């Protein structure tokens, strides 16, 4: 049963977003595609525990979801011409188990040459300007990255019911307004939301926020990298796309050193830097140079520069915290989010003094339930010598944390400061 559960989880995470993108492009109907994939996932959860996992789960999902979509088209009595164009297999043997479109997933669902295009097209649809920015990002994370509503809500620091309503309203607006599924003429009008989506997908893979989340999900990180590279193919002269790619590469280069043998977190100063992926660091440096050569500074480039200072330091003592703090000063001016302000405070604490960092901590209600705020405050308090206050902050962080690896780390920090 554990193996079945793992296969179902892989189906939801890995294959469902790809099949959804294929069906949305094929039928031209996002709502239909999403419902069809949901029906197929429900059928998998019902059948697989007794009948076993198919040889190719992705192809199975594509086939079943396609049939569910066709059934829905029939029931809704959509005009015959659209049905004939989108689903010619309606006129074939209904017992036939292979359709011409199944080859997209039967051979190799990951290397399908049209897959990136389908997913980017769907991403740009979800980032239509008729939707609010928060709705754009949340909808795309749900449909393309396959994140759960709980995971997206944690990334947004909002309650799960609020996030669920946001996604439902966005889907309804796309359906009711009949927003077409195609690449917009001016991609840059939706680019900020698309970049936000890609970075949030990467971050969720880098450190999951859900209670049942794995400490790190390489598949999500690599999915974000793949889509970012595809976006760069579309917009090779856009500095921020280069900047985001550099940022993702710098973080991904450290992936092998972030967990120990027990799957516990290893903080940046304690990581084995010889295990960092030097080729990815060089790729990140090259992408950052490309971004800066375009002379259009932006938040992703600044974050990439910060990550570059960390990743190119051969020893923690070589980290240029003064320069990092200065970059955060600039970043907070163009992206005045509470989390950027929190990271700036930590950098100030390292560059100047722990007390300076504590004084710079943002006073924002948005961070009251954010465990990393309390964890950062605790570390600064430890550095300042205020152990009792640090323990209280660690305890609050531990109360709010949801990822098991983070909880274990905070337990260790509480024990260290006992």
Order of SSEs, N→C? HHHHHHHHHHHHHHHHHHHH
Task: Characterize the largest beta sheet: strand count, sense, and whether it forms a barrel.
Answer: none
The radius of gyration is: 23 Å
Q: Roughly how many Å apart are the termini?
A: 41 Å
Mean of all residue-level pLDDT scores: 84
Write down the overall geometry: globular
Helix content: 55-70%
Low-confidence stretches: 91-113
Number of helices: 20
The class by helix and strand makeup works out as: mainly alpha
Total beta-strand segments: 0
Strand content: under 5%
What does the secondary structure layout of this molecule look like, with pairings?
Elements: H1 2-27, H2 30-51, H3 57-76, H4 80-86, H5 103-106, H6 115-126, H7 133-143, H8 149-156, H9 160-176, H10 191-206, H11 218-234, H12 239-252, H13 278-293, H14 299-311, H15 321-334, H16 338-351, H17 354-360, H18 371-384, H19 387-400, H20 404-416
Helix pairs in contact: 1-2, 1-3, 1-6, 2-3, 6-11, 7-9, 7-10, 8-9, 10-11, 10-12, 11-12, 12-13, 12-14, 13-14, 14-15, 15-16, 16-17, 16-18, 17-18, 18-19, 19-20
């Amino acid at each position: 049963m554990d193996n079945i559960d793992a296969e179902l989880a892989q189906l939801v995470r890995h294959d469902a977003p790809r099949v959804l993108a294929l069906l949305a492009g094929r039928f031209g109907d996002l709502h239909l595609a999403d419902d069809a994939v949901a029906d197929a996932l429900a059928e998998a959860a019902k059948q697989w525990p007794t009948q076993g996992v198919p040889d190719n789960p992705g192809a199975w999902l594509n086939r079943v979801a396609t049939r569910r979509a066709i059934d829905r088209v029939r029931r809704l009595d959509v005009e015959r011409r659209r049905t004939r164009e989108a689903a010619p297999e309606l006129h074939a043997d209904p017992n036939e188990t292979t359709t011409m479109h199944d080859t997209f997933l039967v051979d190799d669902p990951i290397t399908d040459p049209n897959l990136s295009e389908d997913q980017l097209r769907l991403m740009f649809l979800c980032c239509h300007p008729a939707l609010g920015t928060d709705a754009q990002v949340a909808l795309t994370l749900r449909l393309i990255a396959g994140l759960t509503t709980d995971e997206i809500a944690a990334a947004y620091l909002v309650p799960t019911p609020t996030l669920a309503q946001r996604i439902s309203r966005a889907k309804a607006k796309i359906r009711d307004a009949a927003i077409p599924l195609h690449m917009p003429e001016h991609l840059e009008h939706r680019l900020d939301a698309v970049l936000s989506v890609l970075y949030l997908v990467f971050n969720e893979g880098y450190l999951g926020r859900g209670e049942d989340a794995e400490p790190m999900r390489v598949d999500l990180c690599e999915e974000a990298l793949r889509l970012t590279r595809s976006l760069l193919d579309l917009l090779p002269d856009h500095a921020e796309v280069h900047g985001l790619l550099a940022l993702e590469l710098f973080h991904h280069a450290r992936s092998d050193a972030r967990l120990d043998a027990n799957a516990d977190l290893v903080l940046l100063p304690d990581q084995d830097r010889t295990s960092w992926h030097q080729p990815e660091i060089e790729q990140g440096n090259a992408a950052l140079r490309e971004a800066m050569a375009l002379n259009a500074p932006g938040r992703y480039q600044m974050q990439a520069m910060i990550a570059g200072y960390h990743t190119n330091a051969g020893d923690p003592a070589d980290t240029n915290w003064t320069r990092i703090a200065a970059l955060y000063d600039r970043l907070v001016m163009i992206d005045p989010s509470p989390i950027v302000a929190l990271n700036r405070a930590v950098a100030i604490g390292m560059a100047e003094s722990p007390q300076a960092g504590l004084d710079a901590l943002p006073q924002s209600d948005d961070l009251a339930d954010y465990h990393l705020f309390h964890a950062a405050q605790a570390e600064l308090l430890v550095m300042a010598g205020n152990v009792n206050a640090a323990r209280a902050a660690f305890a609050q962080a531990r109360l709010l944390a949801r990822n098991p690896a983070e909880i274990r780390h905070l337990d260790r920090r509480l024990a260290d400061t006992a």
